[in-house]
Design a protein that fits this description.
Oligomer: single chain
Largest sheet: 6 strands, antiparallel
Structural class: alpha+beta
CATH superfamily of the largest domain: Trigger factor, C-terminal domain
Order of helices and strands: EEHHEEEHEEEEHEEHHHHHHHEH
CATH architecture of the largest domain: Orthogonal Bundle
Number of domains: 3
CATH topology of the largest domain: Trigger factor, domain 2
């Protein structure tokens, strides 16, 4: 095998590889013979299909597969011998036809940047710390009760927190909603699910009350013809219901799988769940802080454009809810660059310092993931059988190990926050 390398810019490489055509022909011949021994074709006894028939029917397919595998294996051999580290899969160009007893192909790709030794000792990283307090458990239990509250019809006037069902119509200049009759609408007074001005008008009214009001609808109101306009609205109260929280009795606790130990056991379970969520949130914030500082310290690092493009397209796809749509990826290029830079730097730290994935941490992480499902053993089995899922989990665990390593070497200051501050998005 003959290999030549051409530099195309700082990170681009063009690899030209020449392979003896005999290697391909030997592989094709062996596969044709093997297929002849195993193929079952109408009109031929098993194992007695003539080679010529196999070549006629499957020759192109066999040759294509053999060529693809030969290119793949020889490419890996070539980049290993040349000490190249491709950033992505190469773009291959070849006729696939022998010329002077050789098959030639070119592989175009970008390589990982040469970073040099990474020193993290000067990074100033903020490590946020927190703990789960009894008040946090009380708050979560109250939230769980609210999620399971029932609504009971009442005769008293509506007040904040009540659920009110009402018939509604509104006229704004030449637009009427609905076109005829009324629409039946429900809301919890004070939730601003509709908007405050409308919900405030429901206060103090009882079932069968009818009244009219002039309202200024907000610009983001869900009914386009009323959004940002003034309208004359009519109301009729159909039903008023007040919330009733479930008691913290055995029936309530059993819905969370607590059949023994009562409220004390329930509080222990809630604490365990909150502590698991807190641990994950703190780790995520530490990682974000460390990676941010690491990227800023290597702001001039040249990165493979292909990786940035790919990451930007993935971010664009995620922004569209994962749909296969032609979403412009250019607005995501800056974010993609930082994500790629962070990934490359973390991987390089692992490589330079021989940090290997800790399979015990992988198992612990998988157990934590599985514990959030009703049938955790099925989740474990799914990961065990899906190489891509397991590889992704191992990569995340390895990154966490690198973050821990950075935190040991860098200048770390602690900043204490409450549980609710940690768990609040954007805090």
């Amino acid at each position: 095998m003959q290999v030549s390398v051409e530099n195309v810019g700082n990170l681009g490489r063009k690899l030209t590889v020449r392979i003896p055509a005999a290697r391909l022909e030997d592989t094709v011949r062996n596969r044709v013979q093997e297929m002849g021994r195993n193929a079952r074709l109408k009109g031929f006894r098993p194992g007695k299909v003539p080679t010529k028939v196999i070549e006629q029917r499957f020759g192109a397919q066999i040759r294509g597969e053999a060529l693809s595998e030969l290119i793949g294996s020889s490419f890996q051999e070539a980049v290993s011998n040349e000490k190249l580290r491709p950033a992505m899969q190469p773009s291959i160009s070849t006729s696939g036809k022998p010329d002077n007893g050789e098959i030639e192909y070119t592989a175009s790709f970008e390589v990982m940047p040469e970073i040099g030794a990474i020193d993290v000792s000067g990074l100033e990283i903020v490590k946020q710390v927190s703990s789960v307090e009894d008040a946090d458990i009380d708050t979560m239990i109250q939230t769980l009760r609210v999620q399971r509250q029932t609504w009971n019809p009442i005769d008293r006037p509506a007040q904040a927190g009540d659920m009110v069902l009402f018939e509604f119509a509104a006229q704004a200049s030449d637009f009427r909603y609905p076109e005829t009759g009324t629409d039946r609408v429900g809301t919890i007074v004070g939730s601003d699910a509709l908007f405050k001005g409308l919900e405030d008008e429901l206060l103090g009214h009882v079932v069968d009350d009818e009244f009219e009001k002039d309202l200024d609808f907000p610009s983001d109101f869900r009914i386009e013809g009323l959004a940002g306009k003034s309208a004359h609205a009519s109301f009729k109260i159909v039903r008023v219901q007040e919330p009733k929280l479930p008691e913290l009795d055995d029936a309530f606790l059993s819905t969370f799988g607590v059949f023994e130990g009562g409220l004390e056991k329930f509080r222990e379970d809630v604490r365990s769940n909150l502590e698991r969520e807190l641990e994950a949130a703190l780790a995520s914030r530490l990682k974000a802080s460390a990676v941010e500082k690491l990227i800023d310290a290597h702001a001039d690092l040249e990165l493979p454009n292909g990786l940035i493009e790919s990451e930007a397209r993935e971010l664009a796809k995620q922004s569209a809810g994962g749909k296969q749509e032609n979403v412009a990826h250019e607005p995501f290029m800056a974010s993609a660059r930082r994500r790629v830079a962070g990934g490359i730097l973390l991987a390089e730290i692992a490589r330079q310092n021989e940090i290997r994935v800790d399979m015990r941490r992988v198992s612990a992480s998988l157990s934590a993931i599985a514990s959030t499902y009703e049938e955790p053993e099925q989740v474990v089995e799914l990961y065990s059988k899906d190489a891509q899922l397991m590889s992704g989990l191992q990569s995340r665990v390895l990154e966490d190990q690198v973050i821990d390593w950075i935190a040991e070497k860098a200048m770390v200051s602690e900043h204490k926050l409450t549980f609710s501050e940690i768990m609040r998005p954007g805090a």
